[in-house]
Design a protein that fits this description.
It is a single chain. The chain is α/β, with parallel strands linked by helices. The chain is built from 14 helices and 17 strands.
Length: 465
């Protein structure tokens, strides 16, 4: 690929002698090639050695035995759940929520910061360069939770979208959350707008963006959906929520709104190119057609869908219809591993249990879901998600010459079908975040201690309530 012009004084990183999967529109790959990073941009990608005579090369890496891909992009998560992992392990979604909401409603700022650090560290060390968090629990007096989450992402050095969530439908209104766990309609809208004003960056190389994200049909009022959509579009930010996750949710929508989830969302302004929804497991042909017609995106969370017995999303049919689809870890109370490589593999394997069987997804489609598909869903496909000159330098150098992968000839197959590959280098915005399979932007042991302590404190508070 042709090089993009960069000022001569910009520092460069050169990676050579590696396999490359660009995940561009043509799925261009190089068996042995190079990537040149200039500042925070990709300057060139191509076969063979890097061009001669490059100025200000501060680092030259021999990538023999490695595969370079775009950084992985997570499109759905709930960071705070890191400190409630391993609970309610044999529940479906509604029972799981009822079991955990009373505990979640007692989180505070130190807990949320520690949980965000744990969630981010696990993803970043496994190749995630862009993360997102759908945070929707804001107990009164709990502190600046949005600021704590954004601060943790900034310190970790990853690109980040905070989906500022909200709930205003509690048990007394026919919802699932306890009454003390929700905001008022006015408070939710005001909190969302304040977060957008304080933190959203619309620039090309933005490290922090904000989306408006009421939680789910069974925890929010119709008015919060409608006014939330109006707020998001007035502010020019994206919109996110949960949709069509379980058969129980579909039944809930029919009983309460006299229509299915997709029709309900469309009636409230929640379909469009600026919208993406998590899960979308129970979608009929009409639902998929509506998403394709409107450009509404999907965050596919295969591990969580299996953990909560939600079902198998129709990802092959969505892709065939032209629906943008990315991958999500989901909250670590329903996906205890908390890293995205698992989702590459499980997206492929679980979808092969569905109607399309072995033709459902292949390794390169799975990699695209975790990279370019995620960029589409987050509205950033022009900036990240593929290795192309001029795009932001978010990339991962995966080590594939160890025992775990050495006998798999095709590097993309090795990455997706094989065990989690060590990360030799992860760059975000041209800056190293992971080196030799270790975070260099955070102390993993300190984070482990902090999350363990905060999990214990939360459990004690919930037990005494």
């Amino acid at each position: 690929m042709a090089a993009s012009a960069a000022p001569e004084h910009v520092e460069r990183i050169v990676i050579e002698n590696c396999s490359i999967a660009t995940v561009d529109a043509d799925d261009t790959e190089y068996a042995s090639g190079h990537v040149v990073v200039a500042g925070n941009r990709i300057e060139s990608v191509g076969a063979g050695r890097a061009p001669e005579g490059l100025a200000n090369v501060v680092r030259r890496i021999d990538g023999t035995g490695h595969l370079v891909t775009p950084g992985l992009i997570n499109t759905h998560h709930h960071f705070y759940q890191w400190i409630t992992r391993g609970l309610a392990t044999d529940h479906n979604l509604f029972d799981w929520l009822v079991a955990l909401y009373p505990t979640w409603a007692r989180i505070d700022e130190p807990m949320v910061r520690a949980a965000a650090q744990g969630s981010l560290a696990m993803m970043a060390r496994g190749g995630v360069t862009t993360a997102m968090d759908h945070h929707y629990v804001y107990p009164q007096g709990s502190g600046d939770l949005s600021g704590a989450i954004i601060g943790a992402a900034r310190d970790m050095g990853v690109r980040f979208t905070l989906a500022r969530g909200s709930m205003d439908r509690s048990v007394k209104d026919g919802g699932l959350p306890p009454d003390f766990a929700v905001e008022t309609l006015e408070g939710a809208l005001a909190g969302t707008e304040a977060t957008i004003d304080a933190h959203h960056d619309a620039s090309f190389d933005a490290m922090t963006q904000v989306a408006a994200a009421p939680c789910s049909p069974f925890s929010i009022s119709t008015e919060l959906l409608r006014q939330g959509a109006e707020l998001a579009r007035r502010k020019g930010v994206r919109m996110h929520t949960h949709g069509s996750e379980t058969v129980e949710e579909e039944k809930f929508c029919h009983e309460l709104f006299w229509m299915g989830p997709t029709d309900y969302f469309e009636s409230t302004g929640w379909l469009g190119e600026d919208v993406w929804m998590a899960h979308c497991v129970h979608m009929n042909d009409s639902d998929i057609a509506a998403f394709a017609r409107t450009g509404t995106g999907v965050a596919h969370c295969p591990s969580s869908n299996a953990r909560l017995a939600a079902g198998i999303a129709r990802v092959p049919d969505m892709l065939a219809a032209g629906v943008p689809v990315g991958l999500g870890v989901d909250g670590t109370a329903s996906n205890e591993s908390g890293e995205l490589h698992t989702e590459l593999r499980n997206a492929l394997l679980i979808n092969r249990l569905g109607a399309h069987r072995e033709k459902a997804l292949n390794a390169r489609q799975a990699l695209r879901l975790g990279t370019y598909g995620g960029a589409q869903v987050l509205g950033r496909a022009g900036q990240i998600g593929s290795l192309e000159p001029g795009k932001l330098a978010d990339l991962v150098l995966w080590k594939l010459d160890t025992l775990a992968h050495a006998s798999i000839a095709d590097p993309v197959t090795a990455l997706v079908f094989g065990a989690a590959a060590p990360v030799t280098l992860s760059l975000v915005n041209g800056r190293p975040v992971v080196e030799d399979n270790h975070l260099i932007t955070a102390d993993e042991d300190a984070i482990a201690r902090a999350t363990r302590d905060e999990a214990r404190r939360l459990a004690q508070i919930a037990a005494g309530a």
